[in-house]
Amino acid sequence: EDTVLDVRHLKTSFFSKKTELPVVDDVSFSVKKGETLAIVGESGSGKSMTSLSIMRLVPSPNGKIVGGEVFFNGKDLVQQNDKTMYKVRGNDISMIFQEPMTSLNPVYTIGEQIREQLIYHQKISKREAHQIGIEMLQTVGFSRANDIMKDYPHRLSGGMRQRVMIAMALSNNPKLLIADEPTTALDVTVQAQILDLMRKLSKEYDSAIILITHDLGVVAELAERVVVMYGGQVVEEASIEDIFDDPLHPYTEGLLNSIPKIEGTQERLDSIPGTVPTPDNLPVGCNFVTRCPYAMEICKQEEPTLIDKDSSRKVRCYLHEEGVKNHGQQHRSS
Ligand code: SF4
Ligand code: MG
């Protein structure tokens, strides 16, 4: 089959004293070979915790996966031991994070780090690893790759470090690349270059990508399908075209309205009022009810379920449930 990753009813919680706080709450989605899927939401919506759960990197001892499955290559990653997961990470699944300085070790040269990773995962000689490392650095656009191999991370700019991370992430030819806010720390011009590079490389290597971001502008550049998260839940899933042309969930609509309208500026127009509720402070009913301009009586009482709108769209909102909509609108106008 074409499915690379299949996440089913994933649930991750944090435990404090005797309370269980859900941070990922019944999340399901799948990613196909060569596809770029974006997971979108403000910070605190559960998107990073979803990716950490997939990688089995949920901060312990407080965080724990409490339910669901993560099928990758036919294996449920939730059930694998730490040793297997260590091999999966960086080999079958690679990650790129927001600030590459924290993923690169400051006391080793770029070359030492690239070689070490290649030798560990591919069991090749140091000489071969060096050669592949140079080729990878050239692939991500370094013309003086030989010099970069001898440099320490702090000698490079943020954009250069992120390109090194992409080279490292792709060097083992992973089936899946998880990129968590890969361009957030970079300025606009460098952002565009990195996105361009990721687009080119995902085609070339046929890697599936999960792109995690708060920025729908980045999503538009790179993704084919979008999962929107809020309060630890999936609230909408759709193709990139449907998300931009006809967003169904009020939260998606709010995110779209807060994209800077003028190219190259950081000006935010109508950002959504209020903030994402913390897991210990989720409202009764719909998680978005405290910020939703369309909130109805029923939204405060019962949690809406994620329904299939059609074969390629899902949404969690009473406005899109048959029967409830009319009822709700009567309520609003009365
Ligand atoms: Fe808004 Fe109600 Fe839909 Fe939640 S269910 S997003 S509160 S309209
Ligand atoms: Mg995050």
Automatic annotation (TrEMBL):
One GO CC annotation: plasma membrane
InterPro entries on file: AAA+_ATPase (IPR003593), ABC_Ni/Peptide_Import (IPR050388), ABC_transporter-like_ATP-bd (IPR003439), ABC_transporter-like_CS (IPR017871), Oligopep_ABC_C (IPR013563), P-loop_NTPase (IPR027417)
Keyword Ion transport: no
Entry superkingdom: Bacteria
Topological relation to the membrane, as annotated: Peripheral membrane protein
Taxonomic placement: Bacteria, Bacillati, Bacillota, Bacilli, Bacillales
Species name: Geomicrobium halophilum
NCBIfam families for the chain: oligo_HPY (TIGR01727)
Protein name: Peptide/nickel transport system ATP-binding protein
